[in-house]
């Protein structure tokens, strides 16, 4: 038995707890507590679980509520109805004087998020082999409900599959999990028990990336990739960095695009700055074009140390755009892209239950702009070709009055010139965008080269079309209903589908949803928009998203939860809007055309 449980360790040696009384041992061999009739403490929980062995599974429900463990409080929020139901939900509150997290670990929102993420990963490792589960992320550091730091107090949200033999309670195993493994977890998360140097380095890394992202706008950049970054991933199904000596080519900026940034902890860092405007990423197949764009997509998030993309930062409002044949579109203004449809439909107020590749891509761009994006990320491989380009020979064959589409190549320059929206495009099969590009980066063997001047010598003069910002839409909150048969219904299927009320929403095309918890977070945000009054009073969708951002800035990710006991993580407003736009019950009550000053 560890020394710390014998009354001589750091935490169980009689130091007063947060209620001012001496801590006693939590197990029988740590010294008895005074018997108080009706008291719900760890000793009573242990006894009740042993007594339940062999009883009907439903008896577990009697455990719901608070249990005092002396130095922390366990709350059993919800007990599963049978062994095959979703796991039971627990929360644990560790007071600040027990957790002993220094204020430097949580004094700012960035460090608080980073330290909470570090603790979640520590908890995940500690619980290996346990029935207790904690939601923990992949390579991105995202604010999630599973670990929250509140003025130094540490709150955990856990799941557990309550043990049973068939439909009979396995009380001994339950006692081990809740009265042995859980206290061990609490112990492992207190600051003196951590590798504090690693914890501080983790938060420093995240703080550097956040500071880098904050500098992009002032530097006139949409993204930055530090020298030495490792962009390739281990495989198509793994987001871990490519391993093995010599396999991954470290990123090195071309001299003409080299930028130096000053970061709080690393100091001066050099790398490639991707400037505002229209940037093309070109090169042969398998030379790293899409790998670079994928890193920029994920650059809206911070990454864990060792990921290889810790110092890849992209403007936080960057949105990946693609074609999405078959999606529903509800009263979206695609008039800048589509006109003179044979059906006579008003493309300034366009709806369809089965969009084509081109109309879906046009809608995705318009909806991203409506939500506030100023940076679009586009990969030729996932676009509708007829919306991207139309070469001279095709224009001669199909005259303008018979072609309803205005290709993106004619719109991308006025989009930036008139509205300040930058675009980064991966192009491998067409040189038409040389005519409009401000910067051309060629990837050759995963090494970037600035070939802008060479591309300009190949460019032709062209006449751009006009781009009018899409109309803002007002959503009917009654069409955003999270209930089915009178009960809230919110769940996900892998990373593919969000079930929201009676609707299954296909989210596979939303490349910047990177964490399963974010999908639930999106559903909770949609519920808050509708039920929290944020879509009321005639607010446009953009105004409602602004109000949501304000609420989250004040209340954090847990402002989304409101009674939801499962795992969830913070999504961006752009993925919230994109998912809402794919809700088949969505109804738009009116459109508001932008003014000159919008």
UniProtKB/TrEMBL annotation:
Pfam families documented for this protein: ABC_ATPase, ABC_N, MRB1590_C
Residue ranges occupied by any ATPase of the ABC class C-terminal domain in the UniProt entry: 201-466
Ranges of biased composition (kind: Polar residues): 349-358
Residue ranges of domain MRB1590-like C-terminal in the record: 490-588
Biased composition (Gly residues): 1-11
InterPro entries linked: ABC_ATPase_C (IPR046834), ABC_ATPase_put (IPR019195), ABC_N (IPR046833), MRB1590-like_C (IPR049069), P-loop_NTPase (IPR027417)
Organism superkingdom: Bacteria
PANTHER family documented for this protein: ATPASE
Protein name in the entry: ABC-ATPase domain-containing protein
UniProt organism field: Nocardiopsis rhodophaea
């Amino acid at each position: 038995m560890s020394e710390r449980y014998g009354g001589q360790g750091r935490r169980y040696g009689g130091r007063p707890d947060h209620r001012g009384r001496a801590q006693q041992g939590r197990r029988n061999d740590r010294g008895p507590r005074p018997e108080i009739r009706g008291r719900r403490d760890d000793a009573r929980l242990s006894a009740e679980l042993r007594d339940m062995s062999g009883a009907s599974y439903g008896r577990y429900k009697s455990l719901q509520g608070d249990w005092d463990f002396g130095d922390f409080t366990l709350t059993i929020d919800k007990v599963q109805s049978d062994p095959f139901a979703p796991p039971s939900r627990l929360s644990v509150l560790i007071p600040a004087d027990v957790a002993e997290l220094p204020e430097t670990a949580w004094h700012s929102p960035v460090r608080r998020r980073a330290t909470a993420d570090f603790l979640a990963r520590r908890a995940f490792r500690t619980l290996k082999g346990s029935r207790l589960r904690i939601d923990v992320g992949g390579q991105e550091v995202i604010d999630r409900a599973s670990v929250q730091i509140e003025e130094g107090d540490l709150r955990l949200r856990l799941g557990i599959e309550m043990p049973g033999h068939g439909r009979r309670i396995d009380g001994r195993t339950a006692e081990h999990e809740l009265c042995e493994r859980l206290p061990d977890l609490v112990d492992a998360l207190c600051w003196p028990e951590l590798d504090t140097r690693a914890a501080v380095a983790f938060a420093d890394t995240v703080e550097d990336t956040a500071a880098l992202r904050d500098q992009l706008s002032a530097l006139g950049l949409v993204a930055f990739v530090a020298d030495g970054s490792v962009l390739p991933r281990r495989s198509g199904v793994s987001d871990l960095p490519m391993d093995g000596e010599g396999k991954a080519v470290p990123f090195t900026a071309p001299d003409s695009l080299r930028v130096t940034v000053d970061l709080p902890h690393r100091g001066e860092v050099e790398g490639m700055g991707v400037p505002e405007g229209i940037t093309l990423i070109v090169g042969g197949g398998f030379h790293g074009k899409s790998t670079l764009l994928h890193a920029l997509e994920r650059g809206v998030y911070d990454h864990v140390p060792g990921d290889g993309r810790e110092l890849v930062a992209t403007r936080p409002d960057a949105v990946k755009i693609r074609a999405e044949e078959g999606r529903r579109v509800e009263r979206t203004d695609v008039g800048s892209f589509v006109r003179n449809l044979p059906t006579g439909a008003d493309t300034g107020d366009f709806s369809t239950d089965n969009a084509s590749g081109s109309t879906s891509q046009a809608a995705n761009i318009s909806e991203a702009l409506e939500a506030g994006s100023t940076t679009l990320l586009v990969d030729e491989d996932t676009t509708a070709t007829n919306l991207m380009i139309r070469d001279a020979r095709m224009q001669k064959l199909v005259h303008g009055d018979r072609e309803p589409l205005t290709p993106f190549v004619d719109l991308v320059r006025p989009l930036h010139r008139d509205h300040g929206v930058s675009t980064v495009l991966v192009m491998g099969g067409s040189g038409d965008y040389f005519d409009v590009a401000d910067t051309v980066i060629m990837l050759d063997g995963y090494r970037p080269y600035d070939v802008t001047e060479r591309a300009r010598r190949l460019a032709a003069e062209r006449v751009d079309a006009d781009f009018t910002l899409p109309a803002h839409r007002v959503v009917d909150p009654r069409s955003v209903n999270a209930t089915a048969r009178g009960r809230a219904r919110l769940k996900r299927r892998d990373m593919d589908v969000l079930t929201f009320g009676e609707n299954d929403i296909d989210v596979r095309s939303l490349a910047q949803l990177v964490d399963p918890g974010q999908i639930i977070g999106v559903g909770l945000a949609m519920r808050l928009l509708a039920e929290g009054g944020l879509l009321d009073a005639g607010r446009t969708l953009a105004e409602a998203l602004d109000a949501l951002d304000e609420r989250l800035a004040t209340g954090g990710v847990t402002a989304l939860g409101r009674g939801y006991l499962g795992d969830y993580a913070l999504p961006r407003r752009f993925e919230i809007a994109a998912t809402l736009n794919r809700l088949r019950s969505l109804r738009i009550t009116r459109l508001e055309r932008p003014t000159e000053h919008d």
